Amino acid sequence: MHQEYKSLTRAAIAEAIKKNIGISSTKANHMVDAIIEEMAAALERGENVKIAGFGTFLLNDKGPRVGRNPKTGKEAVVGARRVVTFTFRKPTRLPRIRERPLRPKPTASEYAREWLKCPKPSHRSRTLSVI
Question: Which residue spans within the chain are E strands per DSSP?
């Protein structure tokens, strides 16, 4: 069983820009195309692309290596290449999620009340040593 993921497309980005800014579909499409073209041109020039608050597209050079043809099992040399990787920006502070609220620490008198409720004297002495 595989999980199917939805993809964010150029058209969906253009539609969101159209709704949020209130411009025509044509202008929104041109805006998305211009942004993607500028990012691609920067990567072609050998520059990393950093989008503040989102992440960074990094260029990595990979050296040649020996690979294997999966169909025939024959070894083959895979040439050196440059690849693009994306790294998400790590939030400076993640919100803390709690399933239940924190309980306040019991006071000394609450500990004493619990100790007096213990039915066995031997259990009282163990509990008392914790206090």
Answer: 49-51, 55-62, 65-68, 75-78, 81-88
